[in-house]
Amino acid sequence: MKKLILVIIILAFVICARSETTDITNSLFSFSQNDAVQPQPLTIPLTLIQSAASKGAVCLDGTLPGYHFHPGSGSGANSWLIQLEGGGWCNTIKSCVFRKTTRRGSSKFMEKQLPFTGILSNKAEENPDFFNWNRIKVRYCDGASFSGDSENESAQLQFRGQKIWLAAMDELMSKGMNKANQALLSGCSAGGVASIIHCDEFRNLFPQSTKVKCLSDAGFFLDAVDVSGGRTLRNLFGGVVNLQEVQKNLPQSCLSKLDPTSCFFPQNLIDHVQTPLFLLNAAYDAWQVHESLAPRSADPHGSWNDCKSNNAKCNSSQIQFLQDFRNQMLNDVKGFSSSSQTGLFINSCFAHCQSERQDTWFADDSPLIDNKPVAIAVGDWYFDRQAVKAIDCAYPCDTTCHNLVFNVHRSAIVDSNSQPSSDESFSMMYSHSTKLTYTGLYMLSVLLLITCSL
């Protein structure tokens, strides 16, 4: 197929070269500008919180934390959306020492500009309900979902996630958030865990007259059994909680019944959140498939490698294992979903962080449940336009998914217990992107031929 398309393109150029028309270049330029190139998203500069150091609110390496802020306008001038960045966790001294040499542990390595896409977009056609709000992305540099409070002097590590959270909120309140008439706290992945942990704290920043809700995207991490029968994620979370003393900032209503590690799992936290909360999650969350269900430590022979890289390569027994995982997720949200103030969007996709990406948040081919994309579902719930309890049918029924395909490039950071490093990086692309590339090449070749025939 690729060879055929290339032959067509070459043939088109040959024909064009022999044509007498003088508008070939302009025609091609017009096509690439108007049709092939997507508009560049808004990019927002990094702002460091200068007052943070005096409050002890610093990244793992002691540098200042930061955020990216785009002011609201018009009807959204007094509305505030806070997104807490995700990026895994560090659960040992070794993994945290490595982490402070990255943007996940030091503002020295953070990008100076970040694109605002998806729920952070400033375009109504990309983000219909929140495009003109004050939109903030708070950077993640503590390794414990903005919830730790301790230090390790010998390793020169500061575990100050809770203080970073408080310093960021203080900063934003001083910039006008104290006058908000409506606010939404969101977060993705580890930030999605943080948005659950801090949801009621966020509510308490505002008077009762302010409409306040929370959104957790890809933050519903399950205390699940891995493919070897172990509990990889429980071991990881246990290390995070103990190392960074996260229990100081978990709800006492949970700690009175369960151990601190259990209270770091969202499945055990959500019943203790009083503020309206929306759970957005893929039923076959890509990160959890890779790092909780079938990590290298649980699958040393790599029998899950093909399935992890592409869900289309999973065999029947692997699919059944993943269906059991989905069933556990649905069971864990049953009580939560019965409340009139909660919202759900659980689609049967192999995805992660669907509110951050434009193509999964709101686009022509966005994932749908009952013909409703994520952005509209969240908006309907936030503005009380409609109750949203959207749970997809089981895989593979959903043809609208943007399933992730992985090229895995693992870092060398593995702790002494062979736990997966939270700093393992993945090269990800959506499975339909290759099809789009071929389609684009084909369209370009046809356009060339048409242009030359004019």
Automatic annotation (TrEMBL):
GO biological process, one term: cell wall organization
Role noted for this protein: Hydrolyzes acetyl esters in homogalacturonan regions of pectin. In type I primary cell wall, galacturonic acid residues of pectin can be acetylated at the O-2 and O-3 positions. Decreasing the degree of acetylation of pectin gels in vitro alters their physical properties.
Enzyme superclass (EC): hydrolase
Primary location group: secreted
Annotated organism of origin: Lupinus albus (White lupine)
Protein family (similarity comment): Belongs to the pectinacetylesterase family.
Pfam families in alphabetical order: PAE
A GO CC term attached to the entry: plant-type cell wall
Localization annotation: Secreted, Cell wall
EC number(s) given by UniProt: 3.1.1.-
Keywords: Cell wall, Cell wall biogenesis/degradation, Hydrolase, Secreted, Signal
MF (Gene Ontology): pectin acetylesterase activity
Protein's name in the database: Pectin acetylesterase
Signal peptide region: 1-19
UniProt keyword Mitochondrion present: no
